[in-house]
């Protein structure tokens, strides 16, 4: 069977996808291409027998072409991206280089091997994007649908919007078989602790402040990463070439509600497991105090989008997709994973 190339497969969503795919498709071979920048971690996919990790840059077009030929790859699932908005504000260049130039490099390689060399074989380039390309919603505006106008407001979302347009152009100009999915905020295992949920979980365990931007009422739709993987699987199996599908989690919540849930779950975990107080003595919960005492309001982020929401009607009706995780249950599972995998994240905190 032809192989699959997963770019950024040692990162958060890509790594979860690798684990999900080999569990549900054990006969498939996966090549993971990852530059192992700060957010990539080889241990995320270590021990996955069906996955071969190649350390390399997606901007190396010759390397990608060689992998497509030598590994007999007919599917690319493209996760590799710089994705943290705060980092894009302080330094946009890596986002332009990876998200735009890197995506173009992959598309060039796919076009060269799959189209120009005349094999005519079936193929699929699946591009992972974000709801942030659509901009910001008002409190009463309908959720983002696939035909919403693009209005990116940060260097990160602008770079992802550009990559989306490149993918579309390679389909309409060259006939490359592409599908794009735009997802909402992911959470779950293996997430680098700069994003809200893992950052606040680990800060709570170490008694560090929980920095809340502005008034804490910015709204996001929260998508468990396993549901996202299921959505990508549906796109690969039933997605129509050239189409875009929005993948949401059905959990539109203000940041403050998410933070309060994190605090409550940490308090619950310490109450149920006395050993946590020994492992994390600096946590307020270790001293019988409320984790919520760590909440601290800070200056809002520049250009902070007020609300995102996903209308997943198209994915539900055309692909049969629907999220399965209830947010509170998914968050509890995520906390349990971080508590059980301290070796994984402790290494990241020492970088």
Automatic annotation (TrEMBL):
Gene3D superfamilies (alphabetical): NAD(P)-binding Rossmann-like Domain (3.40.50.720), UDP-galactose 4-epimerase, domain 1 (3.90.25.10)
Keyword Transferase (UniProt): no
EC annotation from Swiss-Prot or TrEMBL: 4.2.1.46
Domain NAD(P)-binding: 5-334
Reaction(s) catalysed by this chain's protein: dTDP-alpha-D-glucose = dTDP-4-dehydro-6-deoxy-alpha-D-glucose + H2O
UniProt keyword terms in alphabetical order: Capsid protein, Lyase, NAD, Virion
GO biological process, one term: nucleotide-sugar metabolic process
Cofactor(s) it depends on: NAD(+)
Pfam families for the chain: GDP_Man_Dehyd
InterPro entries in UniProt: dTDP_Gluc_deHydtase (IPR005888), NAD(P)-bd_dom (IPR016040), NAD(P)-bd_dom_sf (IPR036291), Sc_DH/Rdtase_CS (IPR020904)
Superkingdom per UniProt: Bacteria
A single MF term (Gene Ontology): dTDP-glucose 4,6-dehydratase activity
Key word Oxidoreductase present: no
UniProt similarity note: Belongs to the NAD(P)-dependent epimerase/dehydratase family. dTDP-glucose dehydratase subfamily.
Cross-referenced PANTHER family: DTDP-D-GLUCOSE 4,6-DEHYDRATASE-RELATED
UniProt-recorded name of the protein: dTDP-glucose 4,6-dehydratase
Native source organism of the sequence: Aurantiacibacter luteus
